[in-house]
Specification:
The chain is of the alpha/beta class. The chain has one domain: 3-Layer(aba) Sandwich (Rossmann fold), CATH 3.40.50.300. The protein is 36% helix and 26% strand. The protein contains 10 helices and 10 strands. A 6-stranded mixed sheet has the order 6-7-8-3-9-10, with helices on both faces. α7 links the parallel β7 (159-163) and β8. The termini are far apart.
Length: 238
């Protein structure tokens, strides 16, 4: 059974206008999967529905064969899903350390330590160790993205969802972020990535889904998608 399995998912925002019209999607244990598509296609909405930030109207959302529909976002996080949101979502008035530690809330119990998780993040992002006492607002955009990824790791995820992690970053920083995502995946964390840079997303992932107007239009191995004329014309610059 897949780690995450979505079948015929329909979802709408508060105005009642349906955004997802029957999404079918799966992520296997240890897999790196990407979602590509135009703005407004439903990629972010899919991630929000998985995290319980948007209620499903109908369909099935299962993680490790457990039904996610109706669960709160904290309960979903406790099951082992974490989200790196678009825009990073760093708490500007908290230090780097405090931003990281708050992500342990779903699992941390009296007497437990977050030292192992902190060291893992600091090993991936040494600059965060250097700046652990700085406030979130004082970090550069790239450092804030590192912090957002690190925070998601402190939550002890089995599956990490990422929404446009390259947005607004310099090319060198984009390369560093993607290299880090590969390392995280190699350490056993499954990844579901929404990314505007379709070429890079398909390069690092094993499979991909193309979402158009709230539906999966194409699904294939990433290498096959990169050679698909429809994908090349629409998302890879021809």
């Amino acid at each position: 059974m897949p780690l995450l399995e979505i079948k015929d998912l329909h979802a709408a925002y508060g105005d009642g206008v349906e955004v997802l019209h029957g999404i079918d999607l799966a992520v296997e244990t240890g897999e790196f999967v990407t979602l590509i598509g135009a703005n407004g296609a439903g990629k972010t909405t899919t991630l929000r529905a998985i995290m319980g930030l948007l209620r499903a109207k109908s369909g099935s959302l299962r993680f490790e064969q457990r039904d996610l529909v109706g669960l709160s976002t904290p309960d979903i996080a406790r099951l082992g899903i974490s989200l790196v949101p678009e825009g990073r979502g760093v708490f500007p008035g908290l230090t780097v350390y405090e931003n990281l530690r708050i992500a342990a809330t779903p699992w941390l119990r009296p007497g437990q330590s977050v030292d192992r998780e902190m060291e893992m993040v600091y090993e991936l992002f040494p600059i965060l160790a250097e700046r652990r006492h700085q406030f979130g607002w004082s970090l550069s955009g790239g450092q804030q993205q590192m912090l957002a990824i690190g925070r998601a790791l402190v939550a002890r995820p089995k599956l990490m969802l990422l929404d446009e992690p390259s947005l607004g970053l310099a090319p060198r920083m984009v390369d560093q972020v993607f290299e880090t995502l590969i390392r995280i995946n190699q350490q056993g964390v499954s990844i579901l990535l929404v990314e505007q840079n379709a070429f890079m997303a398909l390069e690092v992932s094993s499979r991909g889904y193309v979402i158009e107007r709230g539906r999966v239009a194409i699904h294939n191995a990433s290498a096959a998608l990169m050679s698909d004329d429809r994908v090349k014309a629409a998302y890879l610059g021809g």
